[in-house]
């Protein structure tokens, strides 16, 4: 049986397939149990308790000597939330400058796109605050699968005070009582024409409308209406600009193909962070948490996050907790190893059982390096990738050839990958968006264990 056959649970499986499944449990990290007095073993010597109250105050009854450090650490690295504090925002100076100039100097609508975890929402949050400081009226809308033009525009209008309408003003009754532009909209569904006419009456301020997670909008009519609105606003020199952000590999994948809006839009793919910018993320956390990451730890984080600020924040936070739990204020490379292992387990829980089994079989067949190369190619493009992208992230010709062959075979049998052709070339994409991140961390963990921390291979299975 070939290695590809072993990935397919519905093909050539004996009746005792469950007993012959790959032991994926060996890819799961479990910390060693803690001995306690009396000769027994327990998962922890004392029952875990919260050390801060819901008001973010330390609880003196349960807090240990590292409780204050843990409390500070929560604001140092926030992998589950975007960065909103400018002091914690690392790098991206050129990106921010380009976005501000496109909005302020060129009066363009703006589209930013890129991979998941590249920092788009953090960038939007910091940019929104900068715009508010310049007295822009900022309206932030998060798109969803059922976003429609009428509903979205009414939500935007509800955040624009009527005092900025040319027919009213701050001294009118409506302006003084805080009415909004939404109060002028009738019950008929909004069209692009009626929406642009309503916004054309704005004066005395500038409005920045931010549409985040735009890729989630499933309606093509919605996307086309937004694209046509951008053109209409530009043609009428309306004091409203729109900033769109979402996961995509290119502009046309995110915004409806309306050729006439190209000259009205500034598009930017958000690049991965440089090693220096990732270092800044780690250092920013150091500055507020009383922790110190040694050079080996920083290098390990840079190598594993692949330029993604989300992964840098996640691994830094988990590595710091490992050090604190061991009673240290210095984070070492071995802490990064444990943090990487924990991240592998976290992402593994986000993918389907079928993918878990298929990956487990591939790893058993010695294909972890191939999977890492495919995951790296997918991460470098934001989704769809070509054989040329595989070449770009892997320097070994033999490994490149193996990865190319694996991509073709996996896609042909619909294992992990799917194949597509947009007219410009043949491409591949992981069917589950979380899988490439998991595979990259799994491959990085393997390299770390094999070459840097062999003693960690003896952790209990």
Describe the secondary-structure layout:
Elements lengths: L16 H4 L13 E2 L5 E2 L24 H10 L16 H12 L4 E6 L5 H14 L3 E6 L6 H9 L15 H4 L15 H8 L7 E6 L7 H16 L4 E8 L3 H4 L10 E5 L5 H15 L2 E2 L1 H11 L3 H17 L4 E2 L1 H16 L4 H12 L3 H14 L5 H7 L3 H16 L4 E5 L4 E5 L4 H17 L10
Parallel strand pairs: 3-6, 3-7, 4-5, 5-6, 8-9
Antiparallel strand pairs: 1-2, 10-11
Helix pairs in contact: 2-10, 2-12, 7-8, 10-11, 10-12, 11-12, 11-13, 11-18, 12-13, 13-18, 15-16, 15-17, 15-18
How would you portray this structure in words?
Helices cover 45% and strands 11% of the residues. It has helices at 17-20, 67-76, 93-104, 120-133, 149-157, 173-176, 192-199, 220-235, 251-254, 275-289, 295-305, 309-325, 333-348, 353-364, 368-381, 387-393, 397-412, 435-451, and strands at 34-35, 41-42, 109-114, 137-142, 207-212, 240-247, 265-269, 292-293, 330-331, 417-421, 426-430. It folds into three domains: 8-26 and 350-458, Arc Repressor Mutant, subunit A; 63-81 and 274-348, Helicase, Ruva Protein, domain 3 (Orthogonal Bundle); 92-269, P-loop containing nucleotide triphosphate hydrolases (Rossmann fold), CATH 3.40.50.300. Mean pLDDT is 81; it is low at 6-34, 40-44 and 448-461. The longest helix has 17 residues, at 309-325. The chain has 461 residues and is α/β, with parallel strands linked by helices.
